[in-house]
Structures
1.
Amino acid sequence: MTNKNFESISALLDDEVKASELQSVVGEIETEQKEAFSRYSLIGDVMRNEQELVSDSSFADSIQAAIANIELDSVEQKADDTLVSIASHPKWHQRVKQKLTQFGQSSTGRGMSQMAIAASVALVAVVGVSNMTPQQDDSMPTPVISTVPLVDGLSPVSTDGLKAKPSADQVTQSRINALMADHNQQLRAADDKEDEDEEKDNIDN
Amino acid sequence: MNVRASKFCKVLFLTILFVSIPTIADDKIESDKTSQSEKEPLVEKVNAVFWLNKLKKALTTTNFDAGIVTIRGDKTESFQWAHGWIANNNLEVERISPLIGGGIVTVRKGDNISFLEPNKETYSVQGKSIRNFIPPVFYKDAAELVDSYQFVLVSKSQITGRSAQLIRIESMDNTTYNYWVWIDVLSGLPLRLAFVNNTGEVIEQVLMTHLTLHAEVHPDMLKLAELELPSPATTGLAHKQETNNWQMTWLPKGFQLLKSDRHHVSISREVSDYYLYGDGLTEISIYIQRPLDSFNSPIVLQDGATSFVMVRADGFDVTVVGKIPPEVAYNIAKSVQRS
């Protein structure tokens, strides 16, 4: 079977067949070609999002059967009860259940199972704790880091507040400087006569 | 016999005096050695006044050019000091200019003192002397000081290579600093001046670094005499007197009111009632201002001989500035009352 035989069918579905060819194409369709026609039209519909792919139940069954056969073969070949092999088996949970019930029914199994449960709980606890500790480590530094800039941020604010209003010392210091300068200025212009005065710096100016 | 004995004693004393102090660098030792013997004789006081009169004459009638260094605390200032006496016009011309530029040049022509500052308008005041490093009393009659100071004629010593006579002007009640002046024996000009506290320590001094005497008035001084300078402002302060209603209930002996007004303090423009007192050797400024929000009363500061005391009184702040001991400044500040 070559694709050449289905070319005309494909062309028909793609509306690329000429009217003259149409009759001959339809007439020539055989059983095999009918299957191809249905397949092609399905492909076209799916590609155009015009139809959901509804697979044939027989097709699905055959695939499942094929897979089942293959899987069973592989399980048979490995033939031991490792976790991997059980997990790889499609019915592994059934097998685990089966094994566990067998184990649990045995006298030693009961104690062991309790221990196993306790151990698994402990494991979960260990895993949980080990999972939690890094989380705590992650979460703890974050507030620490964020508080540091908060503290740093506070102190400049307070000093800014002080800077805005000159402190009492600065006011006092500036008065001291001003009075010292004024004293020298007054001396320069002073005479031993009471009537004289420097014309600058009078309040009347 | 009595006369001869006393004469002999005097001669003996003088020889001891001169032998005991050949070339002593330390003024302290010098003063200690001589202080006991210097107190008694009236002759010495006359001599001191003689020297001070010589100083006055030299300050007003000599043609000279001098270098001056003032040392206050750890600060020094240097000046060029030139003086001319134009006998024909009976005019004194004096100029004090800072050796390092940018400061105020002071020019005195007779009683007219002008201040020349860069980038400022020149202004003048009336006065007999430039108040910078020479106390005004040296231009007047030193006998004004007699009530509060005693004059002590001490030894001669060498200052800038010249023979100098030391006159100690000592406060009688220690309310002011002692003032020592070394007078050039030849010219009568001051070679060194010092504020000395009552323990004999020099706390501020003025040194003459060089002195050039001219027989004739220097051409520079003649030029200066021709310079046009503004006249002193004629504004009185009588109308401002009523704003001052403060009373100084205590002042050191000899201090008199030089002026009082209400003005804006330089730099800060803060209003202050102001009093200036002087005794000829030194001056005291008293400021009365609105109280500051908070300051730790009293503030006592010292810079060389200058004391600064700020005291909180009842509803006002009193500040006293001047070359007086800080405890005296404090007492003055405490004595200020509303009248």
Note: Chain B touches chain A through 53 residues (CB under 8 Å).
2.
Amino acid sequence: MTQEILNGILLDEQTELSLIDLCCACSSTEEWIVELVEEGAIEPMNLQTTGKQCRGWVFTADNLRKARTAKRLQRDLSINIAGVALALNLLEQIENLETRLNCFKINSK
Amino acid sequence: MDFKDYYEILGVIKDASQDEIKRSYKKLARKYHPDVSKEADAEVRFKAIGEAYQVLKDPEKRAAYDQLGSNYQAGQDFNPPPNWDAGFEFNGGDFTGGSNADYSEFFESLFGHGFGSAQGRHKQYGDNVRGEDHHAKVLIDLEDAYLGATRSVTLQSPEIDSSGHVVNKQRTLKVKIPKGVKQGQHIRLGGQGSPGMGGSPAGDLYLVIEFKPHSIYRVDGNDVYLDLPLSPWEAALGASVKVPTPLGNVDLKIAADTPAGRKLRLKGRGIPSKVPGDLYVITQLSIPPADNDAAKALYQKMQEELAYNPRSKLGV
């Protein structure tokens, strides 16, 4: 039996997500996303022009990954938004360091 | 079915206090949280810890488990005795996250059905509610990011069957992986999530891209790194050498007197995208072994004729 091949949309750097997109993808409320933005854990591209008019916010797709990690950390480890924001920052730093370490390590086999 | 020692999983003794159990759970949960831990089995460990805590944090469940478990060892074959739970009261669980697919068979047989743990997680929806979005990981090879690929993704999702029970339904989708995907990016498949209620649209399915570790390449965003071993004469005299890339071999010119650790850029040969990444070649020196007389003679000749001190910068 041949199966249909599904074509998805790649959420790359050029993809823009609305507040509603983020809420749906994270099964979260708008207020929760607003809290993340207020904490600086994620940032819409147009925060300067829209201010608190959150319905007009536009996010780049990498914010989806951050928001979902935030959701899991908060749910599983019962940490508050400020703690989640700190954890996200530290995780990002660790990831960057590990990538750099990995790219420059000499194969020592 | 194997008996699970929930005390061992949480690293506490059998008569640990509720506070000790909570502390140990919190520590282990932070350590093995899949978003934090780099250990390969973090997800499995995290689920096991959560399951153990779900039982031990609840004095009623713990008492029932203790009575049952006193005769069993971890890993021992186990079948719950009939009416084992008589005389205990359960209030239903709030085990965070996920579906009841997260619980072990052992847990399900004891605390699964009839104690509200499965039912409690399904919200009561009104009419006209969009279906929930689903998420899954898809593992791809680096080459797939260069060329694009088709991958089969098997998903397990809990569904409520006609008799009202939660069952895990498996389905397999074939998905096109577009070329140019990067680690951690999402692919959104519209309408492949949970069905909506009252004629509302279904949710979406999000696939998170994860690269399998590659035997020779390393990836940083769009850029790809490769260690390239050179012989001493290639590095000293310069050469044109074959270099593998995910799209096939290319010839690379090595300048004379190239040291180990030099970073050579092959522009645009990283992961393709609107601004394609680069392939970085890091030179390494590979010294031929002096394992025969001819090789030894050559090394001795170099020793005699080249006045070379590799440690001159160390002042010795």
Note: The helical segments of chain B are 6-10, 18-32, 42-56, 59-69, 105-112, 142-147, 232-237, 293-305.
3.
Amino acid sequence: MRRRFGSGMAAAVLVVAGLIAAGCGGGGSNSNSKSINVAIVDNPQMKDIAQLTPSLFTKQTGIKVNYTVLDEGTLRQVTTRDVAAGGRQFDVVMIGPYEAPQFGKDGTLVDLTQMAKSDSAYKYGDIIPAVRNALSTDGKLYAAPFYGESSFLMYRKDVLQKAGVTMPLHPTWDQVAAIARKVNSSKMAGICLRGKPGWGDLGASLTTVLNTFGATWWSAGANGSVGQAQVNTPAFRNALQFYVNLIHDAGEKDAANSSFNECLTQYTDGKVAMWYDATVAASNLEASNSPVKGKNGYAFAPVEKTKSSGWLWSWALAIPKTSGKQNQAWKYISFATGPQYLKEAGSRISGGWAAIPPGTRNSTYKIPQYAKAAAAFAKPTLEAIAAAPITDPGTTPRPGLPGVQYVGIPQFQDVGNQCTQQFSAVIAGRGSIDSALKNCQSIASQVKG
Amino acid sequence: MKTTAGAVDALHPRPRRLNPPGLSESWRRRLPLLPALLVMILLTQVPFVMSIYYSLTDWHVVPPGPRAWVGLHNYGTLFSDSFFRSAVWVSVRLTVIPVIFSLLLGTAFAVLLDRKFFGRGLIRTLLITPFLLMPVVVGLIWKNQMFNDLYGVINWVIGKLGGTPLDFVSRYPTWAIAVTLIWQWTPCRMLTMLAGLQGQPQDVLEAAKVDGASAWGTFRQLTVPHLRPYGELGILLGTIYLIQVYDLVAVMTGGGPGSTNVPYFVFQRSIGGGWEFGQASAYSIVVVIASIIIATLSLRLLSGLLKGEEVA
């Protein structure tokens, strides 16, 4: 009895062990030659194009598009696995200025420059230069922008007026903090700032603040290599302290759980008076069904020691080198990010003209219907994108590839995620700034140039 | 002639032919299972062995680099890693707290459900519902509809009672996840305990009643000892399930101090942004060893239980 049980146990244990340890799976491939697999992020604009693809693209070309729609975090895991580790699952992936130059340099993405320039319908020269440059390295375009954004400050004109304050067009963080504390009340918080862990959430907002306060994650060594971690410097501490104090004094409720979507809800619900976030939010605030439509003012991203501090981001489409259908993939990209789609989408999508993908092409802003629908935010958006200090975001040189709200090195994803978890805990009122900075410094120090 | 002989053989098999010397009775029974076992070994043990190999290398996907042999280095850094140690501590708390509370609550509900009353079937179904929901849905419901300090039910009640709302998930992540796990796992414990209660011999209970024993005395001295093996089984199964909780952590907090447990930590070190496959393999091997220890203990206890049943 005892013995038999023992052998059964050994087998069970082995099976359990195997199941736990079995980790990586292989990718699939599609045998249908007239279809491509595309991974996109679950933002409203992407959902629109997924809906319009059969009628606007498949009908004309006969190419079927299989979409995989993922949230930002999952998309990053999937694309990194697919592109960097050679997963061979997708023919087109959606990435941004953080990934495109890195993957491009590593040689895992198809260089789109030639295809884009020779495709007359695509109008390569029409792409907004700041966005195009952010997605290129060494003059080679590795991803075609689907939409582009910077960050700016949105505020309720009526609320500020009632409090007797005016917001300058180019505010400093000290001015913004003073106004936030002044308009803050028990019914309406002064400002909404991201506090949710994640390098693309809290990490993005906080890094633009760090930059303009003269702080940096790492010093830069020779040739842009990663130098010493700078998290334990006074400048970093000041910036973080400022950010945390502002949230504690005049920030939104449950800040440690809030990012873009949570702040959008609170702002449109009238629960916050100001909001520092992506310019793309303006299209939601000015939408025809928005309760705060027409009540908003827009100011440049607040600064402290630098001239401008807004970030630069773009969701863009790229082709992994492992794809066997590069021609079909380009046809799709040319359709999705070309000028024709922008014109066709305006009258077809539920959000109307104001909701078409912004910030990629100069011609978008010359469409009369769009100029009218987006009158409140089109100019601030374009100016913010142009002003984003992507090559020189702070007061000291940065390691790695260009970037504002991130550091252009592959390890930033990991360091940013882990450190923002520490900082988010401080925002939630758990743990001290000292221990968070100490932990983060040790995390950042593990990165070697 | 030959066929006839074969047919006769098939109809009247001689035991000697089917029992070749050297192959014991038990092996003859196992023989047909071997192909399945082989597939099982290929599917589970080959990846495991590869994981062991990966855990001895320095392999990171981002930035891409050559896979270098580093021996036991990954294991050495593991135990000096304070983040891993705190993940272990979170794992321990996220296992022990829900296991104990769901067992106590499950027993209480089972005792209530064990008596007949109007609408018992409906109540029982309602009580089981949490167990039927997907963990991700459970996490989202509790995070947004219960704990949220602007829109959550709990804070609405606190507000009505004159208190100040509290963002439970960010202030007390471990307890927020633990409470959700208790809610989700209580029905399972309840079912186990209910089965135990309903298997209780009625004549003994009646005898106790005739002897004038109080309800509490009967429960404490007869029901509790009878339920003990069921409770132990609940604790063991609960531990094995709860030690691998990942979905609730991912949905409710997305990790962080006080909520990153070992499975989430392994995820973060591998495809969750760390891309250190070598290091992550080492972590998962350690988890496997820990699981083997727990599984061994569990199975020992379980075999003891079964023996106890036989004696009884």
Note: Residues 1-31 of chain A have pLDDT under 50 and may be disordered.
